[in-house]
Amino acid sequence: MVKNGLIALIVASASVEAAAGEAIFAGGSFWVMEALFAERTGVSQVEVGWIQASRTQTRRQVVRIQYDAKQINYGDLLGVYWAAIDATDRQGQYCDRGVEFSPALYVRTPLQQRWAQQSRTTQALALNKAQLAVRILPPGQFVKAPASQQQYYQKHPWLYANYRWRCGYPSEKVSGQVQQSSAPLATTALFESQFQLPNLNLVPAPDTAR
After folding, report:
1. DSSP bridge partners of 136
2. What is this structure's pTM?
3. At what angle do helices 74-84 and 110-127 cross, to 10 degrees?
4. For residue range 182-208, what is the model confidence (pLDDT) as tens digits?
5. How far apart are CA 35 and CA 155, in angstroms?
6. Closest CA relative to residue 37, chosen from 17, 62, 65
7. CA 89 to CA 27: how far, in whole Å?
8. Which end of the chain offers a freer environment for a tag, N or C, measured as fewer CB atoms within 10 Å?
9. Under a CB-based contact definition with an 8 Å cutoff, are residues 62 and 70 in contact?
10. Is 116 helix (H, G, I), strand (E, B) or coil?
C-alpha cells in the first residue's frame, strides 16, 4: 500500500514540477553554478542572484534555473549539482569562504523536497558521512544580481576560466547521468525501490538551520 501510494504521489507531484520547471541551487560562486547548468539540454534560462529563506537565515549566492521537465528533470539537475560541489564544506566552496557561498537546496514543491532529501542521504552514504553540509530550505525572495553578473562566464571567458581554476572548482563538464556521476540520482525508480514513507500526507519540514 505504501509503495502504491508513493507511486501515485510521484505521478501527481510530477505534473506540478512540469508546470513549475524551476530549481534554485546554492553551491558557491553563482558564476560557476550558472556555467554548470546554463548549456544543459532542457535548461531554458539560468539567472544568478541571492536568496534568503527567512530573517534568521543567511543570504546565499544562488542560481535560479528554468527547465523543461520533459527533457531534464529535477533528479538530473541534482546529479549535476552533487558532482560539482564539496558537500562536506559548511563554510563555503573551494576558495570562496563565508556562509554566503555555503551549499543549499531551495525546494519549491513536495516532490523537489523528497528528491533533495533522498539524494542527500544517498550522497552521505557514498561519502561515509553521518551528515552533509548541504541544507534543504524553503525558497525565500530571489534578488536578481545586476546585469554585469549575469552570463559572466560568456562575457569574460578568460577571467572566468582563470578564476575557476585558481579557486579550485571542478570543471563544469560534469555529467548528470547515474552511471557517470559520483552521486546517484533520486529518480522515480530509486524512490520506488528504496524510499519508504510511513505517512504520505506528511511532508517533513526543510532544514531550519542556516
Report:
1. 105
2. 0.75
3. 30
4. 333 333 333 333 333 333 233 445 565
5. 11
6. 65
7. 10
8. N
9. no
10. helix
